[in-house]
Amino acid sequence: MKKRMLIVSLVTLVTLVGFIVVKAIDGDTTALNDSFTMEFIAEEWVEDDFHLFESKTGQYRMLFPDQFQMVSAPPEFYGRRDTRFEMWNALIYDDSEDGIRYDFRVMFRNYEAEELVRTRLNIMLQDHSYQNQYAEIKTNDTLIYHGASFWDSNDPEGGLKDPNQNEANNFFGLIRDVHSNRSVEFVYSTICYKEELGCKLDAAKQYEFALKLMKSVEFSDE
Question: 3-state SS string over 105-141?
Answer without folding.
Answer: EEEEECCCCHHHHHHHHHHHHHHHCCCCCCEEEECCC
